[in-house]
Amino acid sequence: MNSSSSSKNKLSSLHTPRNFTTVLVICMILLGICIFASLVLGSRVMSVKELIDGLFHPDIDSFETSVVRKRISRTVFSLLCGAALGVSGALMQAVTRNPIADPSILGVNTGASLFVVCGIAFLNISTANQYIWLALAGAAITAVFVFGIGSMGRGGATPIKLVLAGAATSAALSSLVTAIMIPRADVMDQFRFWQVGSVGSATWNGIATFSPFLIVGILIGFITAPALNALALGDDVATGLGVRTGVLRFFAALTGVLLCGATTALAGPIGFIGLLSTHVVRLILGPDLRFVIPMSALTGAIILTISDVGGRLIGGTGEVEVGVVTAFIGAPILIILAMKSKVRSL
Fold first, then answer.
1. Is residue 346 part of a domain?
2. Rounded distance, CA 77 to CA 259, Å?
3. How far apart, in whole angstroms, are the C-alpha atoms of residue 228 and residue 222?
4. Separation between Cα atoms, residue 95 and residue 151, nearest integer Å
């Protein structure tokens, strides 16, 4: 009884962080700056007049306005993908109680990639709907496999075992992807940029296909956040508080896989967004998932969009794909986090 009362007191003590409003305002300002930069900057820098013409004068037909319109869909897609990966990372960290869990680290991205590449090579798929369902299947199977491997042996699914299982699985699946693509020039040409993660091929049709997955995923994240807070206190405590831990883990993990798989299907395996966004939010606002999940969506959108802009500027007349930029930033941060936390569970 004392333990249960203490746990209830811990949950009831969770309240809106004092700096939440300030952080939210700063994030909204940063989001606006990212959107403006994404529309204006690139190999061709747009003037304010060209930006206004592209946004509000559809009757004008020129190279500049067509570039702005292309960047609009690219920016929207980048924001949605970043939000999806941010929420996916927050949910996976909460479910596994692993502070460095991320779709890319646990191999989920690579599993989705393998199924999409197999579909292109052997089933001749070509539409966004087909990509998404295959990617979801691959992400789900990989997630179950990694968790199963990580759960073997004494101690169950510890953070270090999950990371090692994810890394090994990702390496093996990456080799399969390469083995399938190398002998097929058409598949390689079609997906050589997709493999490293890119939002440059965004279309409104793809955005319309992707949006329902994002909406459902974020809603489930909001709904499950209070129960996930209880889960952070331990399975026994959460059960004592009335949480059905098995059902909760299933739906939260399924949602994380859903968001990651849908993103990977259309943008390729973009890594580290879930890791970076969730850690930034938790560092500033604390561990309450009622705030971590929505703010991870916002910060994920900011990080991915600014990474995309940075890739365009670094590449000069070409561009560096956003998956390369996020990996370049995220890999050293992952090392630092692992060293500082010593891979402790949440």
1. no
2. 14
3. 10
4. 14
Tokens standing for residue 78 = 């980048």
Q: Express each pLDDT in 285-295 by its tens digit.
A: 888 889 999 99
- Cβ contacts of 131-137, under 8 Å, gap ≥ 24: 131/265, 131/266, 132/209, 132/210, 132/213, 132/261, 132/262, 132/265, 132/266, 134/265, 135/261, 135/262, 135/264, 135/265, 136/112, 136/257, 136/258, 136/261, 136/262, 136/265, 137/261
Q: In one letter, which amino acid is 338? A: A
Q: Where is average pLDDT lowest: 14-18, 274-278, 301-305?
A: 14-18
Tell me which residue range forms the domain holding 326: 2-341
Q: How many residues does the chain have?
A: 346
pLDDT digits (tens, 9 = 90+) for 133-172: 888 899 889 988 988 887 777 766 666 777 788 888 988 9
Query: Looking at the 3D structure of the chain, how many domains does it have?
Result: 1
Q: What is the pTM of this model?
A: 0.85
Residue of 237, 109, 217, 225 whose CA lies nearest to 171: 109
User: Rg for the chain (alpha carbons), in Å?
Assistant: 21
Return the top range by mean pLDDT from 23-27, 168-172, 179-183, 252-256. Answer: 23-27
